[in-house]
Design brief:
This protein is α/β, with parallel strands linked by helices. It contains 1 helix and 20 strands. The strands form 2 sheets. Strands 1, 2, 4, 6, 8, 9, 11, 12, 14, 15, 17 and 18 form a 12-stranded parallel β-sheet that branches. Strands 3-5-7-10-13-16-19-20 form an 8-stranded mixed β-sheet. The longest helix has 27 residues. The protein is globular, with a radius of gyration of 16 Å. The two termini are 13 Å apart.
């Protein structure tokens, strides 16, 4: 696709990724199948977003940082819900470098730290944070305004108003930085 030089964007099972024109998709990304990416999203260098067995949705102003893998899980009779595990990412979500996001739901303004793993059936609620290096085991929920950390992740403390302000400032920085990188990549063609 000419709008995203250096990225591989391919259909799978008749489903082509749908990417908002304002999104920044960095060179080296691989986006496959039933994926929808919203307005002002930034997907950074060498990410993989593969929706070959279910769907992936990414809301406006979310950023998915370098090296992250986003996948989903198929329906499996007798194991899990009938619809399987899509990956549903809300608006203004911050996802740190090298995260593994798999068959889970990240609500608006969730924060996912560097090198975290979020597994099937998990939910990270709005304004909640999963600390760097954490592993959220299948089916767990990080409630609104809580910080969880560790492997396996567990509750650490409630988040302060200052922490939430910092998360929102991070969203703004990534939207701005994504636009800057998009301009540089286009100019380099």
């Amino acid at each position: 696709m000419t709008d995203h030089p250096g990225a591989t964007i391919i259909p799978f099972n008749g489903k082509m990724p749908v990417i908002h024109p304002s999104a920044f998709i960095a060179p080296g990304c691989r986006i496959i199948g039933d994926v929808e990416i919203g307005e002002d999203v930034s997907v950074w260098y060498n990410c993989v977003i593969r929706a070959d067995v279910n769907r992936i949705r990414i809301g406006a102003r979310t950023n998915i940082q370098d090296g992250t893998v986003v996948h989903c899980d198929s329906p499996d009779e007798g194991h899990g819900p009938a619809e399987g595990y899509p990956t549903l990412i809300g608006e203004e979500v911050l996802i740190g470098h090298m995260a593994m996001i798999h068959g889970c739901t990240l609500l608006d303004r969730a924060f996912i730290g560097l090198s975290t793993v979020v597994m099937n059936g998990c939910v990270v609620e709005s304004d909640a944070m999963l600390a760097a290096g954490a592993l959220l085991s299948p089916g767990k929920t990080v409630p609104h305004r809580q910080l969880w950390a560790g492997r396996p992740a567990k509750y650490m403390r409630d988040l302060s108003d200052e922490a939430l302000i910092g998360m929102r400032e991070g969203v703004e920085r990534y939207v701005h930085n994504g636009k800057a990188h998009k301009g540089v990549v286009k100019a380099a063609r």
